[in-house]
Amino acid sequence: EAVVSTQSTGMWTVSGTVTHMNTYDPALIVPVYFPYVTPGGCRLVISLFIVYPLSYIHRELVHRKAKIYQLLYFLVSGVAVIYYVLGRGILHCFLNIVIVWVIKLIFGPSKTSVILTAAITMTYLVIGYISTTSVEVYDVVWTMPHSIHTMKLIGLIFDYKDGNSDPEELSEDQKKHAIKDFGLLEMLSFCFTYTGGLTGPQMSFTRFRAFCEGQMKFETDENGKPDSVDAAFKKMYTGTIFLAAYLFGGHLFNRETVVSPTFNDYSLLYRLFYLSGYGQLALTKYIGCWTVMEGGCMLLGISYDASLDNKWEALQGVDIRGHFLGYTNKGFIDNFNLTTKYWFIRYLFKRTREWGKWKSMMYTYMFIILWHGVLPGYWLAFLFEIPVITAEKQLGKVIVHYCGKYEGWHPITQTVTMTMARFARYLTLGYGIQPFILLTWQDTSHVYNGLYWGLHLILAVWLPLFYFYFEHKLPPQPPRYQKKDPVVDHARDDLKKEQTTECEEKINGDVTKDKLKTM
């Protein structure tokens, strides 16, 4: 039998390391050779690769079968995968779903249902964090799928309310995802499906329903199956490379070195580079997990969208090219954890925009922080994003004002500037992401004290300097939102209707060639 210590040594769970082994369980074997990876994290990774045989079975046996078989397959297989990783902790997920189902039955498609669903599921999640979260590292416990289900359930009730609201009150995006009703089996399958029940990606209920009902149209091979095998396995190979990089890179960049009392004895430049490498390595496990899971979704066929350049990337978790080649921290955020970011924008930011941009932003950030956890590292990391991104935008305006637009620069100047920008972005990302990795105030302050809180001090100087000096020297910016004129808006709407009617006639072949030339 394997004896597992309780000391926390990894970045993934607090399960500990194996000190004695007589087992064939890979989740217990791997930590013997890689002590910073623990059994819970190994089971999570194994569950990601299980998605591929499950998707293959679906393609061969369940594809295009009746909806009831689709739902049962996703429910049973998804529950089995989550149970393998978490054991009896899966009962919390069932209880969470049952609570929301009862809310739906009692209050129907109302604002009350939305408020109660958000309040109860988030309260349940926060209590779970308080009772299970380690003070040192991120745990793979029942709160992981619970957090995913919380987003799915809140979004589902929002869509349910939208589907029973006046269409004139809805945006085009809300109309696209609105639903009239849903059943308990649909709800369970949607939450537990193996294509996102543990780590995401977040997908809309309308996408899941369309797939199960056979309404999703996608490119097929000669056998009528989704023509996505090559794309899926490319994603799997890519994700495997990132997971391997994390596995072997942990010997070079690890938490123990960063929090050790001797870390601050190294030179300042060495520590900055080390933290940059450690921060990027910490992100590789997320990139690896999301990319492997994305490949499983591709193999199944549920990630298809004909409007995209790569039609199988509708559930893309991270834009790898944009992530590594971007030269701003905003670019990093824009290309990372994409499906979750879209969920926050769709269900939180846009729906609270009428409160004002800053109130909406702060409300969304508060939700994001609580959704991730209760430790101070989450607050320090996410709230630090705001001044960093603000300063980047301000610096960009100053550079354009004094140096002209980037397109007019000499090619050598462009290359040097972009290289320096990417270099600065990696250093600032490594600095800013430390609280998200270290989580505790003690470890975070230990690192930042050694760096003299340098970036915080730079921002503390730059932000007021811009507002009180540079902003007055810049040309005034045109208002982003013009005051609405009812007459102009009505005329614009009429014009759009005329154009839409003509386009429909064109599609139906009812417009003469002469008229088509004038469109």
Fold and architecture overview:
With about 525 residues, the protein is an all-alpha fold. The chain contains 23 helices and two strands. The chain has a two-stranded antiparallel ribbon with strand order 1-2.
Q: What keywords describe this structure?
A:
single chain; 519 residues; mainly alpha; disordered C terminus
Approximately what portion of the residues adopt beta-strand conformation? under 5%
Number of strands: 2
What Rg, in angstroms, do the CA atoms define? Answer: 25 Å
| Sheet of most strands | 2 strands, antiparallel
Order of helices and strands: EEHHHHHHHHHHHHHHHHHHHHHHH
Low-confidence stretches: 1-22, 481-492, 494-519
Order of strands, main sheet, comes to: 1-2
Which term fits the overall shape?
globular
What is the number of helical segments per DSSP (H or I, 4+ residues)? 23
| Mean pLDDT score | 85
Helix content: 55-70%
Structural class: mainly alpha
The N- to C-terminal Cα distance equals 76 Å
